[in-house]
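Exam revision sheet. Question 4 asks you to relate a sequence to its structure. Input first:
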Amino acid sequence: MAFLGLLWVAGTPMIDDRLLPAWEALIAVRGREGAPIGEQYGERAAQNVSVILAGKLPPGVAASWVGELGWIVVADRLLGEDPKVIAAYLVHELAHAEQDRGASERPDSGY
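Answer key, structure tokens:
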């Protein structure tokens, strides 16, 4: 996996520039009442994720949380998809990141 083209902005994980449209789509999400839901995902990512990048993943795997590294990897074959589709995968992987963080904060939880 190449690290060329990663963008880092204070308060966010390092993000593969090919995934910036998806990241921006995620951050822009608003709730029905205008609540900044996407910004909340951004804050959670800043707490739990160090890198978000595109890379090779096995067939049938669209994205993956690599907990031991703090990375979210999105299958590079998805790069041509609508950024909102990729944003949905990012949300899913952020949930895994939060689960890992919660389990490490509660060592007696059985995870």
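Marking note for examiners. Residues 6-82 form one domain.
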